[in-house]
Each structure stands twice: as structure tokens, then as C-alpha cells.
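Here is an idea for our session: we take a single protein and study its fold together. Start from the sequence, derive the C-alpha cells from it, and show both lines together. Once you have written the record down, we can walk along the chain together:
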Amino acid sequence: MEFGLTWAKLDEMQYVTGAEKLGFTHLWTTDSPLIRSDAFVFLTAAALQTKTMKLGMGVAVPGLRLAPTLAGGMATLNAVAPGRVFVALGTGNTGMRLLGRKPMTLKRFEAYARTVRNLLDGKDAEYEHEGEKHNIRFMLTEKGYRNVSDRIPMYLAGYGPKAQALAGEIADGLTSNIPRGGSLDQILANVNKGLTKSGRSLDRSSASFHLSIRVNFAVLDPGEPVDSDRIVNEFGPAITTSIHSSMDRHLEYGEDPPEFLRPIWKDYLGFHMARPAAERQKMMHQSHNAYVAPDERRFVTPEVIKRFCVVGQPAEVLEQVRELERRGVRQLMCNFPLQRGYQMVRDYAKHIIQRV
């Protein structure tokens, strides 16, 4: 089992190097320019200060840059850290909505991903921009401007059936979230549809298709209530971020909330719509995966925590980790909040990484 850490705060690189020493194998850098440090600058600094960690954009937001720009940046990083680079693409949530724009459509997303894949493979790629299509390729690669000799895996982020199937069809792997992306059974079924379409099989290709899943494991201390201040501070940011994403999709597309948010949905909808319309979006996303906003604390209820996290004593949680590994999950991903990150890295290593 691999273990991934999400981080993009340039002045705390010791957080990354410390996690590497504790057994974290991958660094995923977020791509939200209005919230986090610049992804390419951060990854370059990480490449120079880590030794074994795989480094990647996770997830890159296509609407923020042209496909050749993303591919060129990742291939250049691959010259700094040969063979340690990956890239994951997503249609864009916070990174786009804070610019007043919607995520990319799946059709355009597929075309973008295919362009990136072909360029990273050193092939000609069809590139479409402003209604015009051209064949493009990297130039002067043999002169060392970038590295496409060491293959860069490309993963897709997918939370719905179509995106998960697309990952199975055209990518090296899928990154998703339980329960936001569905149950593991649902995720595997969707991926298998795409693998079948591309002539692959989940059984035959399980060693090469990379399934990375973000699951929140809340290990309780003896006698600790599920909604203790510690648990809320550590896992509440992931819960409220999921609420925010679901709210965006509900307001834009009319989507129903996921099952795990239904107990608080009506209350949160009323709370959110009472915010000033011009500031509503920024107010909702300003705490993104960093902390629980004080006025949102009441929505992190024991029921929601139990539905969102795997909660239990160390042995119970460890068994769930092993079950995920048995069923084909290659990597467990962590996105720890700003104020509790250092302690959570140590706890995760102690309770999970060092015992798997």
C-alpha cells in the first residue's frame, strides 16, 4: 500500500520532508491559485528537498492553463526529479469557482487529457484552442529542456460514474474519495466499464491501473466521543469541504446531496442562502480543507462524522485499511488540515503506515 499526502504551503516544506521519513510515498499538490502556494513552484522546491517521494499535481485544473503548458511543466519537473513525477487531472471545483467559472465539461476534459498524455509520451498531439485544431509536439527534447524518457503516469480525478469510467478508458489510474465518489463497489464497477472499453480488464491490469482513494480514518482514544473537539478539528475540514462541493453542484446543476450529507442538508442550504449573495461563494470556500469555520461547526455532527469517516479503535481501523488493499486500492491519500497536520501525520504513521 502507498500513502499520499496533499500539501501546498511553500514555507512549511519540513512538513513534507518529515512525512517522507515517516513512510508517506506520494506528494499531491493542489492547484488553487487563490488559496494555496503556486503548484509548480511548490513541486520544484519539494523535488529538491525530497529523495524518494513521488511528486505530482493533484489535481491539476485544466481551466487554469493550456494543455501544452501543463504537460511542459510536468516534463520539466521530471528533469529535476527523474521518474518521480505524476500528474492527476480534474475538471476543477474550487480553483475554477473562485474565478466565477464552472468546471470543465467532461467532453473538453477528455480532449485535454488526451493532449497531455500524448505530449508526455513524446508523441504528436491534437491540440484544439479557440475552435482551431493543430498537431503539436515537444521540440528539442533531446537537448534536455524536459524529460519524457522517464514515463509520467497520468491519473484522472472522478467522483461521478462517467468520470470514473473515463479514467478506466484513457488514464493510468483514478483518484477518488469515499464516500463522496461512491462506495468502493460502485467505483470499481465504473472503472471496469472504461477498462473494458479500452480492451483492458480490472483483474488483469490491477497491478498497472493505479487506484488512489481518499478515506478519512478517525482513530478514537479510549472513551473519546466521536464529536470530540479533536475529531472535529482534524476531520471537520474534509467534511465541510465536501459540503461546499456538493452545494456548488446542487445550486448549479440541481444535483441531490450525497447520502452522507442528507441529515444536515436542509439546514445548511438555508444557512448558506442567507449569506450575502455577492460574497456567498468566497465565504463558503475560504476555509477550504484548512479549518472548520466557526459558524459551520454545528454541521459536523456525530451522524455525519460516522457516515463520512471510518471511525474506531486502532485495530478496527487497521482492518479496514487491509480490506481496501485486498480489494485493489493502491494508495490511500490524506489531506490534513492546517493547524493539526503535523500531529496527524505522526498519528497516521503510527496507527496505519507502520502497521500495514
The longest helix spans residues 229-253.
